[in-house]
Amino acid sequence: MNINWFDADYLPWLIMLFPLLSFVIIVLFTARSRIVSQFVALAGIGIAWVLSMVEFVKVVWASDAELGHEVFGSSIDWMTLGTRTFEMGVLVDPLTAYMLLMVPLACLLIFAYSVGYMRSDPHYSRFFAYISLFAGAMLTLVLADNLLLLFVGWEVMGLCSYLLIGFWFHKKSAYQAGVKAFMTTRVGDMLMMVGIGYLFIVARTLDFREILYNEEMLAHLASTPAVIFGGSAAALIGVLLVAGTIGKSSQFPLHVWLPDAMEGPTPVSAMIHAATMVSAGVYMVVRMFPLLSAGADFHAGDFSAPMIVMGVIGSITALGAAILAVGQNDIKRILAYSTISQLGYMVAALGIGAWVAAAFHLVNHAFFKALLFMASGVVIHAMEHGQHEAAEHGDEHLHHEPEQPDGLVMDYVPPANDIRRMGGLLDRIPVTAITMAIGGLSLAGFPLITAGFWSKDEIIADAWHGAGEGYLLALLVVLCLLAAAVLTAFYTARMWFMTFWGAPRTPAAQHAGIGSFRNAWVRSRWARARRLEGVAVSHQDRSSALWMEVPLIVLAFLAIFAGFIGVHTDFPLLGALDNPLHEFLGGTLLEHPTAVDFNWLPVLASSLLALAGLGVGYWLYGLRPLGAEDADPAEQALGAGIWRVLENRFYIDILYRRYLVRPAEWFAVNIVIQAIDKETIDGVLETIGEAFVWLGEFFKRFNTIVIDGVGDGIPGAIGSFAGWFRQVQTGRIQQYLLYVTLALLALGALMFIQIR
Amino acid sequence: MVITFSGALTGILLTPVIGAIIILLLNKESREQARIIAAMSTGIALLLALGVFFGYDVDAANAAAANGETYFAFEDHVQWIESVGISYHLGVDGISAPMVLLTALAGFTGVLISWKIEDRTREFMAFFLLLVAGVFGVFMAVDLFVLFFFYELSIFPMYFLIVIWGWVKTREYAAMKLTLYILIGSVVALIGLLALYFKAGEATGVYSFDFVHLNEAARAGVFDLPFFGDSGVTTARLWFPAIFIGFGVLAGIWPFHNWSPDGHVAAPTAVSMIHAGVLMKLGAFAALRVGVQLLPDGARMHLPWIIFLTLINVVYGALIAFRQRDFKYVIGFSSVSHMGLVSMGFATMNLTGMTGAGLQMFSHGVMTALFFACVGMVYDRAHTRDIPSLGGFARKLPWVAVAFIIGGFVSMGMPGLSGFVAEFPIFVGLWDGPVFEPDPDWLTGSFNYYAAIAIVAVLGIIITAAYVLRIVGQVFFGEFNEERFPGVTAISLYDKIALVMLVFWLVLVGIYPRVMAPMIESGVRPIVSMLGG
Question: Of A45, A320, A689, A747, which sits most exposed with the smallest number of CB within 10 A?
Fold first, then answer.
């Protein structure tokens, strides 16, 4: 058979196949060899990346007719129940192609980074097996042509997330964080599964082509009344699907798992908890947007129930998480809250119908946040190295190390993650410092030159437009997002300046560093410019730095340039780029989305707010860098009370534990087990049992006295008679002869009487 | 008089019996021979069961289902006691063929897992084989008298297996509790069955226990006639609860579930595997076959309230499992929860949900067998099942840990494993609601609460994840206590074979459900058509 391997029908299957194949190969064959496992994993994701690029090019080159709804894809029957068939298939439309641009590349870079980061881990092969499975699941989710396969990828990712957060499972806190993440997201997942089930009942299919590209179907879904809660079927399904996103993308009120998920290795945080899995939650609602908005004319301010839920939840999350990020001292937790906040931006954007903007921000965020996480990983490595060095120099005892708690404790910050213990790392890991600054500027939305600016600006512009039309939801979104934008810029500046600026605040920071040729080269120039030649820098480990830095540099490039594909056409000068993204992505939707008219006000507002946030951050932490004994100015400004609230994450986790988990346990123990199972059911049965025992006792006595009285009486009588009669037999011949004689006499007497 | 005889099913039924007889004839000291004979006879039964499973003609079954008939494959039909209409009639339909495979699988792996039993090995193996034979008999019986015969027959060896080889602390209590519950349930069901027998005989003139005959009578509407003279209560409506719940006791239906965790815990490992893995399905299977399929009108009337009992099963069992300290009790209550999903699937009364229930019977059977095998392996080495005092066993018993984790993911419905393939259709079926037009005077008429039940039942699955992860975390992960558990040895090759065989089916059905789903569907189809679909 003549198979064209570059035929689009095969290609998508192959993209997701290779990482899964790597997983199987590592688990079954190569787990013993670290090097082979590492290369199997890299090869799997590498091939997936190459194939994705081929696929992407194909989609871009496809004629307009093929671009939109005429998608590439194929499917097989998976299970048939009655007249209904569950199909499993793949589909590549512009949205998928855009995701394919990001997901395999981000994964590949993170895999490469992991080679450096996990080098000394004893379970190196297992780590690569898990992340390969994860990457395969993520690609499955992106390529799926139906909700069921999407859900398969979704759940397998949840499983990998659990396994990887708890990768260091001997550490109790890591394992607990894994369970917390899994359980919290699972609440959303299960509601989503119920929603998928209902969608299947109403639509009789789960295929995207037949639901999302089918106006009749959408109208049918929007007009069918829901079985419960009123409203339309589309609205009920939509809300249930959004519940899945709330869990997976860590939105309020199910956001509590993500900050604790930072217990996992940093590459995991970069991949799962920034670039891919948490984004997959948003991807799902982006994908399902035609269904979520079915029956609602949101351009005219008529938002459907799922959109309202997304708008409100997204706004609350974006703002709330940004506030919490200000109050964190753990570098990874700052980034975790920042991720929650940015995902809130996307969800809120979808709530007001800014579909393209949400997808745009999704991809840009993945690039710069993966960069930030990986950079933070280098910082942590450098700090751990520094702690080790400092301990060898005997300086470390000067600084009291907090006791590592047993299990998850909210306000415990591992010393290597604590930005209060850093400072001055710019001179020690300059490549990381510079790339992290680029990522941070992109996150903060530094005007014009960063990717983050363009996508965030587009969301705000859409919301601004809606608010201008007088839509309350859009007003809420724009207010929350603008407030969040200032805070984002501020906490980013705080994080960066506290980490890299000024003088080292602890011996660990003094000795921190990972070495590489590039670091040495950059540092030598840096040091000359800043006249720092005299500062001693500790001996550094060079082996893993290369693997860790190259991905940073690639991502830093993307954190700047990934944004220019989505510049509004009316933007002065840069508008000449013609906004290819909007045109390209728009083909995915039935109705080509129209970009809102260009407006200077939101651009100015978001630029100024970003600059203001960065400025305040610089003013507080940059102008006069924090010294070793200084208090945190943000903490001073806010006062101890508010700071305490932030450190305790608005007490939401405590609230859940106290009012949900404990009552559930109490309910299980006291009501279900004790009251119902033990006392009522077993109690009733025991009462019946006792009654029967009593009845049995009664019958037993009845038996002994009455029935046995009769039953035993007869044989007893026979027995006693026999006992008496037995005495006849004595064994003496004389006596027997006497009996015989007597008998004969008696017989003779009888005969005599008869004859007579 | 022989009517048809293909022999495969009789072969499956007799192999363990013959094995048991040979074992009993052995010398008292020949333990190894007893084990080998037990493994061989269950192995042959397994091969035959695989033959039956893969040889089952789904198309023929669907063709028969189009007329509302149940297609029995591999029939063995011999007249037995003609005067009362009892015949030795075996056959498998789409629902029972996977169950026969499940029994064979649990039987064979059970023997492998019990390899180390040194206490009266001969008797243990003989009883175990008799138990397996009894269970086979129930799944294969077409004549309901034969079904009943084997139903009772499987309880008797179970009692001895628990009392003699069980956990010393509770074995007598548990064995007695189990036997009483099941016997009382079955007596209630038997009375119902006799009522059907006489009613059908009265109406058709032919008194027979044969399912095919009774099913024809049911389709002719015999059981929809008033039971007493002209009263309004029909046979179906009157006797359905007795039959469904009577058999449902063995399926652990709330509030008659309490025998099961106690029984599982007290039983030795292999018996727990059969007990939870297969025996509980006997109840569900018989409730479906005798209850729903013969009395569809009763099902239409009563399942809409019985579904609440199943909902309680699902959530309540999971909650209790979450709070157990004893490893084995967790699994015991998880069975209560999962069997609730089976009955819930029946109660959806549509093709999707009931097929899901059939898949869940198989999936849960294999999964629970796997769970109990894992628990047994840990217990044999740790000599305790107290969850908080265990820990770190993943390092010592990696095979067991991986198998348990896979089983755990099956139980929480992870896609790619059989649990999802089973649970997802049940939930879809719940949304769909029953196939027939609801009676406006009855519950389903005014308001479709089945959808609400779907949402509440999800709680059970979430809690399932919690207790599975709790065990994984506390038993397999964490620090291993060398002092407390010295000399933990690796598991044997037999154990590994057993684990791999069980995991294989969980993965196979999960990835490729078409190996089983169409078959179960073909068995469910006639039932649904009788319900009005």
Answer: A747
